[in-house]
Design a protein that fits this description.
By secondary structure, the protein is α/β, with parallel strands linked by helices. The chain is built from 13 helices and eleven strands.
């Protein structure tokens, strides 16, 4: 008997037994993910990287997703097109970029005067929103999972002060989703362009104003160097939900354990993105003000007009699109109920505590 060989086999046995069952039974899978965001936006693009890293860790590196920033595989606003066609396995994007395909995509990122981040989570998980989203996404050959929220956004950067509705007439404004249609009804000229293209357009004067997310990202994109008037709030994005999206055929082919790994990673990303923005935005806002940003708030005249035009737009769209009508009926009822509750507890606390802290 070869004692040395026998001892070697005995030593290797515990290691073989210790290998996760997952690594012994499931296939190696490689996916490519295209983000709608550039690499320098560390929270937005970074969330896609975190999802990929977490999936790898949960599957003993047998399921690997490589995240690419906007433009390296497909343009930032073409992620859904690539997923539909099956030329890409997955992406990380905001569904409201695709309202040109179906206005119903807006509900699952943000609506003007809609649900904030917490309300949206409640609607999606408890109020039937996820089922409505699945119906929409599946019709476009996509499986979608909520994967991050920015929280309430800022109202954007303007070269000139906006004192009244008249100042919106002819204003060339980069703005995404349904909000562009609302501002068009208020007299502005909206356009939707990807994150990486916004600053050059503002610098060249192609745009008079831009909105993106909030202080952390806006500082990275350098808007304060060109436009000093920084408005609040972004009433069209009281929260903005992002989704991990996968080509439906690719998703259906995954083992259940890999699907569970993605769902776990996306659930963690949902909470982490909001926490990161809540942590980073106050610090960035202080730096922006020190750099010359003039913090301003929307005139009440504009807020009231935007509220009217938003709801008129929803009703008109519901009259033309049966799917939008069904989702709006669910969404509006849920929003109105949530608004009543938040007025009682959250808003009454906020209205006292925040001014009191500022006055100390």
């Amino acid at each position: 008997m070869n004692r040395r060989a026998l001892m070697g086999a005995a030593a290797a046995a515990p290691a073989a037994l210790a290998m996760p069952a997952l690594a012994q039974t499931l296939p190696e899978v490689r996916w490519r993910l295209s983000s709608s965001f550039p690499r320098n936006l560390d929270v937005l693009f970074g969330t896609a990287e975190r999802i990929a890293s977490r999936v790898a860790a949960l599957t003993d590196n047998r399921f690997r997703i490589q995240a690419f920033p906007a433009g390296e595989i497909v343009p930032g606003l073409a992620v859904v097109d690539a997923l539909q066609a099956g030329t890409l396995e997955c992406g990380h994007t905001a569904s409201y970029y695709y309202v040109g395909k179906d206005p119903s995509f807006a509900f699952f990122t943000a609506l003007p005067f809609g649900l904030n981040a917490r309300m949206n989570t409640a609607w999606m998980t408890q109020g039937g929103g996820n089922d409505l989203a699945a119906e929409l996404f599946n019709s476009y050959n996509i499986h979608g999972i909520p994967a991050g929220d920015t929280g309430a956004q800022m109202g954007g950067w303007f070269r000139n002060e906006v004192r009244s509705l008249a100042d919106l007439n002819g204003l060339k404004f980069r703005i995404a989703g349904f909000a562009g249609q609302v501002f068009q009804r208020l007299g502005a000229v909206p356009t939707q362009i990807a994150a990486g293209d916004i600053y050059p357009a503002l610098e060249r004067g192609t745009l008079d104003a831009v909105e993106f997310v909030g202080p952390h990202d806006d500082e990275k994109l350098g808007f304060v160097r060109v436009a000093r008037n920084y408005y609040a709030p972004g009433f069209w994005e009281p929260g903005a939900r992002l989704h991990f999206m996968a080509n439906k055929r690719a998703w259906d082919a995954l083992p259940d354990a890999y699907k569970a790994a993605i769902e776990t990673a996306c659930g963690e990303a949902n909470a982490e993105m909001l926490a990161r923005y809540d942590h980073l935005n106050p610090q960035a806002l202080r730096r922006l003000v020190a750099a010359g940003a003039q913090l301003r708030f929307w005139p009440r005249e504009i807020l009231q007009a935007a509220w009217r035009e938003s709801h008129a737009l929803y009703e008109e769209t519901a009259g033309r699109n049966e799917r939008f009508k069904r989702i709006w009926t669910s969404y509006k009822a849920y929003r109105d109920e949530e608004y009543q509750w938040f007025r009682v507890a959250e808003n009454s606390f906020d209205n006292f505590a925040y001014p009191a802290a500022a006055a100390r």
